[in-house]
Amino acid sequence: MITFKQLEAFYWSVELGGFEAAARRLNTTQSAVSKRLQELEGILGFALFDRSRRKAQVTARGQELRLLARESLALRTRILDMSRADLVEPRTVRLGVTELTAMTWLPSLVQRVHGSHPQLTLAPTVGSSVSLAERLQAGELDLIVVPDAFRAAGLEVLHLDAVQYDWLCSPSYLDGVDRLALKALAQYTIIEQKHESGLGNLIDHWLDAQQVRFRNTLASSSLTASASLTLAGVGICYLPRRLFEPDIQSGQLRVIRSTPPVPRIPYVALYEKARADELLRYVASMATETCDFSGAMPRYFPGR
Which residues of the chain have pLDDT under 70? Predict the structure, then answer.
């Protein structure tokens, strides 16, 4: 019989791009994830991953199962939410998120929490990840969702998802080129996410490891501003691929694949262990279950 633990192990291994990341997401070990996947493959009678390569790749049948697993896990969560309703006193949880979360799955989280706990109010604040981390430690926020660039004693870290960023630009800025060595990007204007940006810090560390320095840059801590500049043809920017897939498909943006490619950026939920109670831990767990950076709210950028 197929279990939800097996489906979770498979789904998050595919979504996060590896068994180790899935183990962190599920708060278990990599060996436990591998065991659940082997059990699932044994029950189904076909391979979910092609393990002949250095990094296991999901098979075509596995891709079909991924969609079914997602639906099954979402349905289980909705059922569990019914049992949690009307169990708490009125309460407000102060939640801090960056623009990426606000533009994707924040509305779903608010709806889910309110549906299971009508007395609970989420009060979202949208800001830069550095300022959110500072406000969390100052006690001004209860929970934040940010790139995994902040670690401090006393913080509980819940792994959410890893987001694929790609170099994107307008065809009006650079056309006819779809692949460049990372160092070759230095000859172009690069739009960077800086100024209190945890994402920018992670990208900077990666560029330092690649011994790459960009000379001509524009800096912003705002995803919306960076996207607007990119769509306007000002330069090349690393942006979350799934969020801007409609612009890529419409031809307003094109992907420039670098060698090596931009790494996937892990996102986490953080809260102070000393201040946490059962309700806050519940909201954090809802964030881990609701997290989905692939679905976007309608966006309005100048020049579109």
Answer: 78, 80-89, 295-304
50 in Cβ contact with 184 (< 8 Å): no
**Residue 74: per-residue pLDDT:** 75
Task: Name the CATH code of domain 91-161+266-290 (choices 3.40.190.10, 3.90.105.10, 3.40.50.2000, 3.20.20.150).
Answer: 3.40.190.10
Q: Which two tokens stand for residue 44?
A: 């189904």
CATH topology of domain 4-83: Arc Repressor Mutant, subunit A (1.10.10)
The predicted pLDDT at position 83 comes to 58
Q: What is the pLDDT of residue 291?
A: 92
Both tokens of 165, joined, read: 């960023």
What is the structure's pLDDT at 302? 47
Q: CA quadruple 26, 29, 30, 32: dihedral positive or negative? A: negative
240 cis-preceded (ω within 30 degrees of 0): no
Cα 141 from chain centroid (whole Å)? 20
pTM of the model: 0.73
Contact 7, 69 (CB under 8 A): yes
Give the strands of the sheet with 155-163, arranged side by side: 120-126, 91-97, 143-147, 265-272, 155-163
The CATH T-level fold of domain 165-259 is D-Maltodextrin-Binding Protein; domain 2 (3.40.190)
